[in-house]
Specification:
Oligomer: heterodimer
Strand content of chain A: 15-25%
Organism (chain A): Nocardioides donggukensis
Mean pLDDT of chain A: 82
Helix content of chain B: 25-40%
Largest sheet of chain A: 5 strands, antiparallel
Mean pLDDT of chain B: 90
CATH topology of chain A: Glutamine Phosphoribosylpyrophosphate, subunit 1, domain 1
Protein name (chain A): Proteasome subunit alpha
Helix content of chain A: 25-40%
Distance between the termini of chain B: 64 Å
Pathway (chain A): Protein degradation; proteasomal Pup-dependent pathway
Number of helices of chain A: 6
Distance between the termini of chain A: 34 Å
Shape of chain B: globular
Low-confidence stretches of chain B: none
Radius of gyration of chain A: 20 Å
Family (chain A): Belongs to the peptidase T1A family.
Radius of gyration of chain B: 20 Å
Subcellular location (chain A): Cytoplasm
CATH class of chain A: Alpha Beta
Number of helices of chain B: 8
Order of helices and strands of chain A: HEEEEHHEEEEHHEEEEH
Order of helices and strands of chain B: HHEEEEEEEHHHEEEEHHEEH
Number of domains of chain A: 1
Structural class of chain A: alpha+beta
């Protein structure tokens, strides 16, 4: 095979974009939802130690999909930038917009520079204000594009399927309990039927403006999640071809151990396979 | 390099993995922001800036109380009447600072950021001893300034979630770190405050008893040390009192502290030297 001497810039960028997109579509989705008291993040993440959702600053949180080492690097850079700004100026001078800009510039430069491999990540930066109208969710893609999202946003995995389900079910200004149920159900939704994601495999966190402390980020532990989600139905009207013939009601947190009629719960820790 | 301007790419230092210490990161990325990295011209600068004075802390079963008076002095002048010298360091610890007020407040801000930074990066909080050692490192870095009269001497206290008790640490200007049992005081009025606490402190004091004991101690410090401010009845300025227990730290509301201070003062109208301890 002969070496091509010339690659058009269009082709070069397309190749890099395809490369990054493929990396991001592996693994599972992350959902960010605006609810009555702030912004809710839900992701399917069997690991208790490697987080996809994290705190950046008082009112700012970070969520990411893609390669762990790359987005972890960006997260730490974000914490450093926020803490440095807060220390040099004041806590109020740390804004989500500034952080999103810094990320966009960084991702954009790396994507278009020939020397570095593009980051295979997609990021949400969310910031809450004093009222729901001031809440912001920014979506940053591997090439440094920034989008301002409203109501809800989904990235990674089968994002479009989950987003479609959320479009149908999302209610503006819903309380936390409803928002968590809708988001968790949407994450388990796929064209081939619905799964009940075990509560231990969920990573859920909120930016909650009703917290009295200045730091508004809070992770929801399994006990709280179990209480919030209550009993969940495994199947939907849509017939699921791969199992779950009748609604196998799950008594949280443990799924009913009926091995044959189990809803098709993916084995934990297989983010290598695409969902669809 | 200083703080990156908006709209620029994150500098390489931000994306380099390594330290989870904010002070170490600043030292590499923006050393001009560190209080210890500044050079001060030769000579004694101690008289140039206000000094904070007395801080006391005492443990009780289930927590620890720290209280600080509100005075800052510059030589014989009262520089400020309502300065705050006791700060929460994080949810389960607090720090009070005696010494050069400007540097002290900056060091507290650095220490607060340091603890929060570690927590966010590592996903877990530092142990109580870890926090105490980090503070020692910050104080040690300030030794050069201390030798030119700009000393900062903190008192660190908090609730140790592992040991399930309140703990107190004192420091010297070289960064020496010493764990204290029961109670301790730092600053110009500390020997009088410590003397008072020796007589007033009981191991079985409850939270409110412990708060009263620290306020009595601050009263005694103000009684004998001109640089320590007593309760200011005309302006209603009372000590800052921080209580840390297993459920976190909180600053007592001014009204609560005022009520305790009023009781203490009323009793001193009868006996100006304060409550009498038993002889045997």
């Amino acid at each position: 095979m002969s070496m091509p001497f010339y690659v058009s810039p269009e082709q070069l960028m397309k190749d890099r974009a395809d490369f990054a997109r493929k990396g991001i579509a592996r693994g599972r989705s992350v959902v960010a939802v605006q609810y009555a008291d702030g912004v809710l993040f839900v992701s399917e993440n069997p690991s208790q130690a490697l987080h996809k959702v994290s705190e950046i600053y008082d009112r700012i949180a970070f969520a990411a999909v893609g390669r762990y080492n790359e987005f972890e690097n960006l997260r730490i850079a974000g914490v450093r930038l926020a803490d440095m700004r807060g220390y040099a100026y004041d806590r109020r001078d740390v804004t989500g917009r500034g952080l999103a800009n810094a990320y966009a510039q960084t991702l954009g430069t790396i994507f278009s520079s020939g020397g570095e491999k593009p980051y295979e990540v997609e990021i949400f930066v969310a910031e809450i204000g004093d009222e729901a109208a001031d809440d912001q969710i920014y979506r940053l893609t591997y090439d440094g594009q920034v989008a301002d999202e409203h109501r809800f946003a989904v990235m990674g995995g089968a994002a479009d399927v989950v987003a479609e389900r959320l479009t149908e079910r999302h209610v503006d200004g819903a309380p936390l309990r409803d928002a968590v149920s809708v988001a968790v159900a949407a994450l388990g939704h796929s064209d081939s039927g619905d799964r009940v994601i075990p509560v231990e495999d969920l990573e859920v966190a909120v930016l909650d403006r009703t917290r009295t402390r200045p730091r508004k980020f809070r992770r929801l532990p399994v006990a709280v999640l179990t209480e919030l989600l209550g009993a969940r139905e495994a199947s939907e009207p849509e017939p699921a071809p791969s199992g779950a013939p009748e609604s196998a009601t799950e008594s949280s947190p443990e799924p009913t151990p009926e091995s044959g009629d189990q809803p098709p719960v993916a084995p934990p820790g297989d983010p290598g396979e695409p969902l669809t | 390099m200083s703080v990156p301007v908006a709209g620029s790419r994150l500098p390489d230092a931000f994306l380099t993995p390594g330290t989870s210490s904010f002070a170490d990161f600043l030292g590499a990325a923006a050393p001009d922001l560190l209080p210890s990295a500044r050079s001060v011209p030769q000579g004694n600068a101690g008289d140039l800036a206000p000094h904070g004075t007395t801080i006391v802390a005492a443990t009780f079963p289930g927590g620890v109380v720290m209280a600080g008076d509100r005075r800052a002095t510059m030589g014989n002048v009262i520089a400020q009447r309502d300065i705050e010298k006791v700060f929460p360091a994080d949810e389960f610890s607090c720090v009070g600072i005696a010494g050069t007020a400007g540097l002290a407040v900056e060091m507290v801000r650095l220490f607060q950021t340091e603890l929060e930074h570690y927590e966010k990066i590592e996903g877990t909080t530092l142990s109580m001893d870890g926090k105490a050692n980090r503070l020692a490192a910050l104080i040690r870095a300030n030794l050069g300034m201390a030798m030119q009269g700009l000393a900062v001497v903190p008192l660190f206290a908090g609730y140790d979630l592992t040991a399930e008790q309140g703990r107190i640490f004192s420091y010297d200007v070289t960064g020496g770190r010493y764990e204290e049992t029961a109670f301790h005081a730092v600053g110009s009025g500390s020997m009088f405050a410590r003397g008072a606490l020796k007589k007033l402190y009981r191991e079985d004091l409850d939270e409110s008893g412990c708060v009263t004991a620290t306020i009595q101690a601050l009263y005694d410090a103000a009684d004998d040390d001109s640089a320590t401010g007593g309760p200011d009845l005309a302006r209603r300025i009372f000590p800052v009192v921080q209580v840390t227990t297993a459920s976190g730290g909180r600053r007592l509301p001014d009204a609560e502290v005022a009520a305790v201070a009023d009781t203490v003062i009323a009793a001193r109208m009868d006996r100006p030297d304060g409550p009498a301890a038993a002889l045997t």
